[in-house]
Amino acid sequence: MRRVVAEITEENLELKKTLGLAGRARLSAQQKQDVLALVDATQRRSEWPLDSILACLGVARSVYFA
Q1: SS3 readout for 26-53
Q2: CA atoms within 13 A on the CB side of 63
Q3: Which residues contact 22 (CB under 8 A, 6 or more apart)?
Q4: Fewest CB within a 10 Å sphere: which of 5, 10, 27, 65?
Q5: For the chain, what are the domain ranges?
Q6: Angle at 32 between CA 19 and CA 3, to 5 degrees
Q7: Each residue of 20-53: pLDDT tens digit?
Q8: pTM for this model (two decimals)
Q9: How far apart are CA 7 and CA 57, in angstroms?
């Protein structure tokens, strides 16, 4: 179980860098679409709650729901 969580976390950290989410307060329309798709895919694959996925990506709920 720990290995799976570590793999998902590492994958999400790499995606965060790829999506340009590091240190950003606002997302462009394209970034938001990419994040929505990623969160949806992660929820289906892992059944993690939304808050856990957003925390792994470093995206605040207020930014996600804006």
Answers
A1: CCCHHHHHHHHHHHHHHHHHHCCCHHHH
A2: 19
A3: 16, 58
A4: 65
A5: 2-64
A6: 50
A7: 666 656 778 888 888 888 888 888 988 889 898 8
A8: 0.59
A9: 14
